[in-house]
């Protein structure tokens, strides 16, 4: 029977392909126990949506199983999502806040935000979704709920629980029949209050559906929300690329890392046949990503089911999980989680916070 | 201090009543006199928006001005609420690095250390 030391030694040849370090020195191996010829341990990854978790697990089983005197290897996959930055006053319990943005409207930002949130839940993460589109909130419709958020003590509110996520929409707070007109100076104060008000609790990820464009409201959100990263949605048209570049600039100014771009409606999947039709020039997303110098996180097909699901009050990842678009969103979620995990590990884990009260 | 991409404060501290410590992710231990920080406030009241001219004069700021509370702003800056009630200034990490007054940053660069 091997010693604990020998097991760790064996495991230290298993490398995380993204972090380029071995899983032992990364601290992923937890609760190692030897019992007769059985070795068991937890493999604690930095996100439940890790795209290579099954490969890592198999590698672990293989190298430990090869040790003399080992007849059984029990690896339990778990995840502890890391916090890439110190907690502040806004959303203190949320480990990663991710903005979904676009330079222009109608490219599928809300659709992407909603499905990304559901896909992260499907991977086992705890997730919130914040619809901050003050000009046209769409989450009440997409999730088929017009619930009124419950108060949480004085001047705070609880998000609504819907389809496995904590949901908050600016649409829950305003009367749909009497849309508010948002004027410049009001926007900053109102959004800032909205951001502070919501009692999110402890969550791995909160996805923020941003208003389209790069105006005042967007700037306020990027400045105030403790964003760990941004995902920029584009479509194959050339114009969309110009807008994407604007979006990228906005995040750069406030030092929010752009995790990458998603090309939505990249190709067409019609009902009944699984063939991918390129109705636009294919490969535009990849070229755009190269041109902008950011990763291409995913390509989502144009598919009728996306719209019907959105209108029916259950986004496609929940409603038709096997459809090509849902699969594309699942893949996107793993890629987003992966980019965040890479960045989270690059920054030193932030021990103390950047909030302080001065001692006089 | 030169601030390379991705270098951020990892924590804050206090050294006595009037020195703010900034623990940078590259290991640098930054020091900033709080009154100098107050005087350097970049907000629109303290600096003329159009000309960039500083409106705030040294005699306008009490000798014993202190922060009350410090909070992060997004991923790129800190905001400081001051004992004189002022709270609109946003200090970017870049600015905080440039202003660093630790011994290493405050010392004049030796003549031979200039890049060729
Ligand atoms: N991949 C897709 N396949 C088919 N339809 C899609 C797809 N993505 C989005 N749509 C549809 O396109 C329309 C616009 O999408 P969505 O509301 O998500 O865009 P948006 O960028 O959030 O728009 P806005 O700027 O108005 O907020 C919706 O009707 C949606 O159902
Ligand atoms: Mg939208």
Task: Please provide a written account of the structure.
Chain A is α/β, with parallel strands linked by helices and 360 residues long. Chain A has helices at 4-11, 53-65, 109-122, 139-142, 170-173, 184-197, 216-224, 238-253, 284-292, 304-312, 316-319, 324-346, and strands at 15-16, 21-22, 29-35, 38-45, 72-79, 94-101, 127-131, 160-162, 165-169, 203-209, 227-234, 258-269, 296-303, 356-357. Chain A has two domains: 4-80, GMP Synthetase, Chain A, domain 3, CATH 3.30.300.130; 94-346, P-loop containing nucleotide triphosphate hydrolases (Rossmann fold), CATH 3.40.50.300. In chain A, the strands form three sheets. An eight-stranded mixed beta sheet of chain A has the order 8-9-7-10-6-11-12-13, with helices on both faces. In chain A, helix 3 (109-122) packs across helix 12 and helix 6 (184-197) runs parallel beside helix 7. With 116 residues, chain B is an alpha+beta fold. Chain B has a single domain, classed as NE0471 N-terminal domain-like (2-Layer Sandwich), CATH 3.30.2020.30. Chain B has helices spanning 34-39, 93-98, 103-106; strands at 9-14, 19-24, 29-33, 67-73, 77-82, 90-92. Chain B is globular and about 35 Å long. The chains are: A alpha/beta (360), B alpha+beta (116). Chain A binds chain B through residues 85-86, 88-89, 222-228, 254-256, 346-348, 350-360, and chain B through 6, 8-14, 17, 23, 25, 66-76, 78, 83, 93. Strand 14 of chain A pairs antiparallel with strand 4 (67-73) of chain B. The site of magnesium ion has 4 residues of chain A, from helix 3.
């Amino acid at each position: 029977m091997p010693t604990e030391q020998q097991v760790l030694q064996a495991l230290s040849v298993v490398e995380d392909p993204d972090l380029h370090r071995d899983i032992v020195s990364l601290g992923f191996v937890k609760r190692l126990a030897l019992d007769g010829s059985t070795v068991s341990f937890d493999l604690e990854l930095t996100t439940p949506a890790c795209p290579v978790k099954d490969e890592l697990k198999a590698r672990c089983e293989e190298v430990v199983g090869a040790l003399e005197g080992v007849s059984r290897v029990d690896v339990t996959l778990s995840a502890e999502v890391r916090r890439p930055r110190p907690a502040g006053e806004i959303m203190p319990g949320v480990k990663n806040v991710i903005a979904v943005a676009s330079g222009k409207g109608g490219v599928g930002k809300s659709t992407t935000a909603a499905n990304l949130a559901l896909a992260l839940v499907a991977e086992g993460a705890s997730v919130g979704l914040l619809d901050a589109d003050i000009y046209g909130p769409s989450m009440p419709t997409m999730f088929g709920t017009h619930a009124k958020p419950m108060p949480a003590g004085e001047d705070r509110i609880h998000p609504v629980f819907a389809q496995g996520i904590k949901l908050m929409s600016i649409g829950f707070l305003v009367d749909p029949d009497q849309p508010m007109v948002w004027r410049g100076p009001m926007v900053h104060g109102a959004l800032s209050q909205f951001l502070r008000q919501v009692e999110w609790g402890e969550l791995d990820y909160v996805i923020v559906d941003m208003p389209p464009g790069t105006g005042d409201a967007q700037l306020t959100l990027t400045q105030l929300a403790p964003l760990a990263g941004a995902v920029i949605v584009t479509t194959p048209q050339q114009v969309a690329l110009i807008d994407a570049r604007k979006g990228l600039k906005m995040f750069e100014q406030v030092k929010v890392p752009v995790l990458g771009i998603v090309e939505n409606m990249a190709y067409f999947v019609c009902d009944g046949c699984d063939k991918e039709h390129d109705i636009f020039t294919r490969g535009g997303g990849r070229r755009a990503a190269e041109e902008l110098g950011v990763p291409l996180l995913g390509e989502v097909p144009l598919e009728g089911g996306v719209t019907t699901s959105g209108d029916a009050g259950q986004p496609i990842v929940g409603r038709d999980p096997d459809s090509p678009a849902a699969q594309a969103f699942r893949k996107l979620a793993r890629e987003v989680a992966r980019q965040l995990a890479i960045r989270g590990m690059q920054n030193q884990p932030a021990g103390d916070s950047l909030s302080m009260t001065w001692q006089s | 201090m030169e601030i390379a991409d991705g270098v951020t404060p990892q924590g804050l501290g206090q050294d006595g009543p009037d020195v703010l410590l900034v623990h940078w992710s590259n290991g640098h231990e930054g020091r900033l006199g709080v009154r100098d920080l107050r005087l350097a406030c970049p907000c629109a009241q303290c600096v003329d928006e159009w000309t960039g001219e500083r409106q705030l004069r040294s005699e306008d700021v009490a000798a014993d001005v202190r922060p009350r509370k410090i909070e992060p702003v997004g991923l790129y800056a800190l905001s400081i609420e001051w004992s004189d009630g002022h709270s609109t200034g946003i200090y970017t990490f870049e600015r905080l690095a440039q202003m660093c007054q630790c011994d290493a940053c405050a010392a004049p660069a030796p003549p031979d250390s200039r890049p060729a």
